[in-house]
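Researcher: Quick one. two chains, 791 residues in total.
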Amino acid sequence: MADSPASLGLCLRNVTIKLESTALISLNDTIEPGEVLTVMGPSGSGKSTLLAAITGTLAREFTMYGRVLLGGRDVTDLPTEARHVGILFQDEHLFPHMSVGGNLAFGLKPSIKGRAARQKHVEDALTEVGLDGFADRDPATLSGGQRARVALQRTLMSEPRALMLDEAFSKLDTDLRQQTRELVFQKARARSLPVLQVTHDHSDAEAAEGRVHLIA
Amino acid sequence: MPASASRTDGPRAGYLAWVPRLTLLVMLGPVVAGLTGTLAPAFGLMPAVGPTRVTLEPMRALLDWPGLPSAVLLSIWSGFAATSFSLLIVILVCAGWAGTGAFRVMERLLSPLLSVPHAAAAFGFAFLVTPSGWILRALSPWVTGLEQPPDLLVLQDPAGLSMIAGLVMKEVPFLLLMTLAALTQARPAASLRVAQSLGHARVSGWLKTVFPIVYSQIRLPVYAVLAFSMSVVDVAIILGPNTPPTLAVQVVRWMNDPDLAFRLQAAAGAMLQLALIVAGLGFWRLAEILIGRLGQGWIRSGARGHPGVDAAVRAIALMLGFLTAVLLIAGLAGQMVWSMAGFWQFPDVMPDSFSLRSWQRFGPRLVEPAIETLLIAGTATLCAVLLVLGCLEAEYRHGLRPANRAIWLLYLPLIVPQVAFLGGVQTVSIAIGLDSERIAVILAHLIFVLPYVFLSLSDPWRTWDTRQGTVARALGASPGKVLWAVRLPMLLRPVLVAVAIGFAVSVGQYLPTLLVGGGRVTSLTTEAVALASGGDRRAIAVHALAQMAAAFVPFAVAMILPRVIWRNRKGLLNG
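Model:
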């Protein structure tokens, strides 16, 4: 397989996921840096399972065939934490026992040393999304839109090389949904991240302005 | 073989995977070894003391004991009566009141009382119902006309009624909490609404739609209650009849007899106790099937229940439920008053004066057993919590699905009667050269602490949203960091509750401390139970309260600590 062209994006090479002997989903595609691929299908079609396979959190009863390459590197056998694949779910999953700043610092790479420097990174990231001075807040006191922005920034702090969106906007109401979506796509493009979103909502697909892969 | 099948275990495969097997070994190894160690002497095999010839002599000696028929009958009767009555109260309270405000009040009253050790609860009950106890004092002389305590045998009555009442008081909170856990899965509100909209009365509607589902979930706890009530020793020493006592108490007497011939007879008695419990469970199972059949017919009959009967049943159930809580609380209050009572003449409801003299007198004697108790409970609980966390984490990391049979294994130490294997555990621990009685006792406590810690922690652990873990891993955290920095802090409260339950279970253990410690390990519980025959109220009150405090303080910590630590974290305060 060394002959295939190396892409810096997210390359799913003949990926098939099976539950026992039934194939749930098959995909052979490359998402280039800055591109958004939308996978659409009804619930139960295995969309989230695809993301679990890419992040390396596939439940035991599923079997994955094929390879996942990211930035030209085969990550198929790496543990989740070594893959550098960020993920956002429909719930933000902010850690309830940490402050907002603590949540961001959890994502920030350890290579940034020193209390002051790490603190500054966290505060800058909050300012970037209009949440200046939120570092000490309890995440449970934030509004839905604020939580979504904190979750996004937390993911970006870990400097992922690809971003997965698992129905990430489905809980937000229409206005907020549009704003949040724009923010996420804009930041992902600015960082040249390949983005794979799964959704059952057409407006998510349209907003992504990218290719759409339909599954049954 | 797929050319490139991928698993998520990554390079850490196998890590922690051995913990479930170790846990089973620690929990069931001693049960199996102990049963063998008890079985052998029952047939005359006791190499340590000489006779090594297979013989039925111990069995014959047992059968020749004139007290055997009544001891056996007493064990069977008290076990079945206590279990049926506790179950009936719990079922009717849930049928009549689940989901109401009164029910929540009862739940709040009874859940902390679960931590009251059996011995402390039994002493408290004794303090209330004895002829010179609070109940008769409250009614004298204006109702009863009594100026002197009557010469009545209320406690240790030959029919075992006070023992049964003492057991019911302790088993109702346990079964109620087990039923509540089952209820959250059975969606009772929806079923009940449908039944009521079809014209069924509340209690009979609940019994027809919710009970069958709930009972299948609480079957094992019920079996544990039956086995426990048939073979309990500490409660039977305090409240049960003496001549003859229950079979289990008599077996323990024989085990502690200096004449070694009685050891063999004790082993035979222990085997009989095991057989009784196996037969008792079989009989209970048959009754379940029979009642199930009758219930099917009742459901098909379409009867809608009688509103008058329904209201009466609800009222009685509520009364009995609250009576349980009131008796437990009043018993503890009675002990508190006795422990500080000065001169206290009969019909007076309160003593003439209060003083700390009893505490000053018996307090210093409590220090050593208290330290021993804390040491044993602390070590056993720590080991249990680490093993259980290891099991649950292994399950999560390796995607293991525990088989349904696994839950049976958890209940095994709670169903096999203690007298049938603890004697053997002592024999085996000596045989393998374990020369520290304290360590042997800790290992014996671990057998009983492990199932409760597992049952308490597994639900909150398994219902934790694993996507929280996925998010943390995707942010670059290793599985270890997810455990220590995310999962454990989020589950601080259930972990502390599990610690408190483990601690309370260990503090309450009487027989494991007595038998496996060979009488050389004294805990607060063994000291308190030893006072039962003496009848010094003040000494008993001080000891029972100390035992109670040792069991209760960890619960208070488990309730308060998370509130203090997470006082600024709303997301965790109501978890």
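Chain A has a mean pLDDT of 92.
Researcher: Thanks, that's what I needed.
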